[in-house]
Automatic annotation (TrEMBL):
InterPro entries cross-referenced by the UniProt entry: LpdD_chaperone-like
Species of origin: Streptococcus caprae
Every Prenylated flavin chaperone LpdD-like domain range: 9-119
Designated name of the protein: Amino acid decarboxylase
Pfam families: PAC_bac
Length: 133
């Protein structure tokens, strides 16, 4: 089960591709002129623990795309059946302050679209069976 959500504003496009791996949700958030994987954000529903890995960028800097993943996660966290992983990588050549500001609203809108989609899905799948002595 996979769904893609796309939004264009302020001269660039963002896309969130969401798919289930079992009952866990994987979201690939990309956009701009050079999509990539800049950060990986994981969320464990059982412990409510969120962790982020930032990959190196240019000049010793690290990507900051997780700030957009956090916006999406906030919109969907209450609807998650299990865990979630969000990879994020948006790069707009010569990005302006206006475009940076717009990216937060775009992420919020994509998060709401994913939340709406999650509400249409039934998670009545069988639980895995583990080894018993």
């Amino acid at each position: 089960m996979e769904q893609t959500f796309t939004l264009t504003e302020s001269g660039f496009q963002m896309e969130a591709s969401a798919q289930f791996v079992g009952a866990d949700l994987l979201i690939v958030l990309t956009g701009g002129s050079h999509p990539h994987i800049g950060t990986v954000t994981t969320y464990c529903k059982e412990t409510a623990d969120k962790q982020t890995t930032r990959f190196p960028s240019h000049s010793g800097r690290f990507h900051k795309d997780d700030v957009l993943a956090d916006v999406i996660l906030e919109a969907i966290v209450a609807l998650l059946p299990q865990n979630a992983t969000i990879t994020s990588g948006i790069h707009v050549d010569g990005i302006t302050k206006e475009q940076i500001q717009a990216s937060f609203g775009m992420a919020q809108h994509l998060g709401q679209q994913i939340a709406d989609w999650l509400q249409t899905i039934s998670f009545d799948a069988d639980k895995p069976t583990y080894y018993k002595k």
